[in-house]
Amino acid sequence: GPGPGAGACVSVKVFDSKLIRQQREEIRYVAVQASHIMCQLDEVRRALAAAGQQWNSATQQVRDKMTKLEEVLRDHGSAGKPQEELLVLLACGAASPGLHHFLCSTLCEEG
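The structure assignment produced for this chain is given below.
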């Protein structure tokens, strides 16, 4: 009958070291290039992560400013949305009292 370890799979690979020796410079070159590429990919991952964090921070600041603008407009009796008020300002150069107040006070704050 089968002995101990029956059913175990054993794999043996034999390489011709002469062939490897003949190609050692090419193998070394490929290994070095692969190492450089892996390092560059790590740097790209870190840069993308940092850019993503900065993007999230910037978009949050824009959302916060738009919320503040909406509050200021409401406090000044304007029924317009912030986007509409900004579009009128861009198109005509005219700012409603609420938008004028927001631009003069809120955007002049430090930060």
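Interim note for the steering committee: The longest helix spans residues 24-75. The helical segments are 17-22, 24-75, 82-92, 97-106.
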